[in-house]
User: Fold these one by one.
Assistant:
Number 1:
Amino acid sequence: MDAPVIGFSKLSKTEKVNWLVDTYFDGNTVVHNTITRYWNQDQKLQDLHDGFSENTITNYYFPFGLAPNFLIDDKLVTIPMAIEESSVVAAASKAAKFWLDRGGFKTTIKSTIKSGQVHIMYSGLHGEMDAFYAFAKADLLQSIESINASMKKRGGGLLDIKLVNKTDVLSGYYQLHATFETKDAMGANFINTTLEQLANTLREKAKEFQGFSLGKPEVIMSILSNYVPECVVNVSVSCKIDELGTINGVSGADFARKFTRAVDIATVEPYRAVTHNKGIMNGIDAVVIATGNDFRAIEAGVHAYAARDGQYRSLTRARVENDVFTFEADFPLALGTVGGLTSLHPLSKLALQILENPSAQDLMRVTAVCGLAQNFAALHSLVTTGIQAGHMKMHLVNMLEQIGANDDEKLLLKKAFQDKTPSFSGLRESLADLRRK
Ligand code: MEV
């Protein structure tokens, strides 16, 4: 591409595709076809998807799978998961089955408070900001009453505001820290609208206030926080050591000992903690995406929580006490089951229906369970057979696709490799052998 493209967003979808194919692929019709074969023939559905984003040229599919047999708080749940990585859904299902006979998963919602901040700069004396806040507080609260009304009817709304002096970390920095309960909505729009109104009122009241000696406070920005250490669900599994049985040839006692050491390592060693938590997010993100929630917000919030004491650590904890093995985690999950994509995307709606139309709190529980299950499954393999044995077997299908095996060859090669760890070179050799025969 030699020159910037002007007015790209105004082009029709077909024009955008043609521009792309001409500019980057020399008009290649195969590339054109790759793009258009993913268009949905149902124009209404296609229009819906095009409307979710901007400059769309096609659709990007993710597999949507099911992990059944989760016993969560004594109720059987089938978890919908949207994820592209092989083994993840199988691992979740395996963990579900393992804990099904051992009491299942237990969850507790610890709190559901979210927050947002109006970030302010003022270089005058601290006492002046305190006096201004006392002067403005009632009007600040009054000014958001109409925005708050419908959320209040649902039992939520703005909970509190306070002025926070942050001048110890940044000269002249204050914030209006607001806390919210948003019930079944993720609440981003509600929180941001409320914060922007608070900021407007703050500016107006600052004009009236006579006590500033150095200009007026300046609002820098108003935005919700995706850090939600007060919107947390606890999830756990627990059973007697002898109920663990023999796991991949390892005794229950040895398994529990190695498992808890593996978690301890991820608690103290960031190199391991990141991969450990990545495995947890395999499960969490899959549910978050399937249900139309914002996985970037969840990712950012969860990782910040994992580093809340200044070091990045494991999100899960494991222990053996009085011959009882317990594995648990607290996850900060600000999720919604109404509003946003949850009610727009037909597959998010379906995912929520599969979960029997959960409240946001129930979705927090299910998502947390999937995260803990995923970590259990990963450590279950890591401390016994190693990850590759199961992983590569699941990956075999993708590998066979990549080396260009046809359906008959796939069947034969799957059989030939059922007890082996497949490698690309081994598979290619076997495929060549097959073809020679
Ligand atoms: C792979 O997606 C996730 C794992 O690496 C997680 C872990 O190491 O705990 C298997």
Note: The chain has four domains: 8-50, 67-109+236-385, 114-224, 390-436.
Number 2:
Amino acid sequence: MHSLCVYCGSRVGADPLYEQTAARLGQAIAARGMTMVYGGGSVGLMNITADAALAAGARVVGVTTELLMHREVGHSGLNELHVVQTMHQRKKMMADFADGFVALPGGLGTLEELFEVWTWRQLGYHNKPLGLLNVQGYYDGLLDFLSQTHEQEFVRPDVLGLLLVDDDPDRLLERMGGAQPVSEDPWWSMRETI
Ligand code: AMP
């Protein structure tokens, strides 16, 4: 992976560990010589990840819309900031620029973006690795529900296994670098035994 798209909250969340992990992800991106692609804002975990990546020497590319330039305040220190018209153009450009995707804790926007690239992969529109940073068990409830989608035979297990889940940024990027279509130790099979 040469570039990584990061989806994360436009807020920092309730637990300081979210901010710490966002900063560690930015540093891990820089340590691998990768470019970070993200929504271009200077708010929340988006800002913390971007600032940490920049400070550690990474190239950071933002993609935002005219409307969000004001609401999320476009980050002025990026190597590139693309301002497009629509959210669809924004998400497509972010996805096209990236060789892989990671979601940190976040809100509805983060969830929507993650699920979109996951469904695009399911349909074969791309073959890029997908990772979820499950910091402090933030996504446990969602992962429980996703287990049900397989148990109730709406989602194939190999599609669930496409999402690599970890709580450590370095380890997650390591695993994504060698990701196979079906992970050997998928979170959904472990959770079935809980
Ligand atoms: P959030 O996780 O809701 O804090 O939002 C994180 C990022 O996702 C922000 O840059 C939002 O502008 C963006 N976002 C919010 N809603 C959507 C959406 N429907 N589609 C794509 N991105 C969104």
Note: Residues 16-31 form the longest helix (16 residues).
